[in-house]
Amino acid sequence: MSLKRECTKTLTPAEQQELKYLRQKVDNLQEERFRKDARPSINNEVFNAVHELRSFTSNLRQKGRTI
Hints:
It is built from two helices and no strands. It is mainly alpha-helical. It has one domain (about 15-60). Helix 1 runs antiparallel to helix 2 (about 40-60). It is elongated, with a radius of gyration of 16 Å.
């Protein structure tokens, strides 16, 4: 049995909260993107938020977490 191996497949409460936060951030920025008064940098912000969410979920999956 390896010591590096994760025993749990479900998300911890902290991971659940971070995932929820990142998803809400992406949703809010995508909604703002299509408003007439959107910030000029909104496209970059959406790109960065999506990248951050994908990176977070990818790392969780590599640890064996079920999302």
